[in-house]
Write a structure and sequence with these properties.
Blueprint (H helix, E strand, L loop, with lengths): L4 H17 L9 H21 L11 E6 L10 E6 L5 H21 L17 E4 L2 E4 L6
Antiparallel strand pairs: 1-2, 3-4
Helix pairs in contact: 2-3
């Protein structure tokens, strides 16, 4: 093997071994740990959604978004929810949303699904508006 191809061959072997070692039969997949991680992420999302209320607001500056990702989808696209930044639960909603993102990422790490290359995409937060004291997306509907 030539000196130039040796690093490529070693890297390719490492990727194949890592990819084949995840999940599946005989791969050491811990179903209980994975399900517990998924359940924790889903519970944290439900908590954040309850805390992230969309009113009141007087201006768009009083609106923000929390985001969530699917703990079961390796190529999860963020889901945004507008909320009012002036409520007593606003800070807790943001913390719960951040925790959900971390829990979902952990669940995906434990997933039995093989690692895949996800398509490149840009996910921008929605344009917000404050209409009738309610934080909504610019399209006129809550997410």
């Amino acid at each position: 093997m030539t000196a130039k191809l040796k690093p490529v061959a070693l890297l390719s072997s490492a990727v194949l071994l890592f990819g084949c070692g995840r999940g599946g039969a005989g791969g050491g997949f811990d179903t209980a740990a994975y399900q517990q991680a998924v359940d924790a992420a889903l519970a944290k999302e439900a908590e954040a959604r309850v805390l992230a209320v969309d009113r009141p607001c007087d201006t768009i500056l009083q609106c923000g978004v929390v985001l969530f990702t699917d703990p079961k989808n390796q190529c999860a696209i963020p889901v945004y929810q507008p909320y009012s930044l002036v409520t007593v639960t606003a800070a807790a909603a943001k913390v719960a949303s951040d925790q959900q993102l971390a829990l979902a990422a952990h669940a995906r790490e434990l997933s039995p699904q093989p690692l895949v290359a996800c398509p490149a995409y840009a996910s921008l937060p929605p344009v917000l508006a404050c209409v009738t004291t309610r934080c909504i997306t610019g399209s006129g509907t809550p997410l």
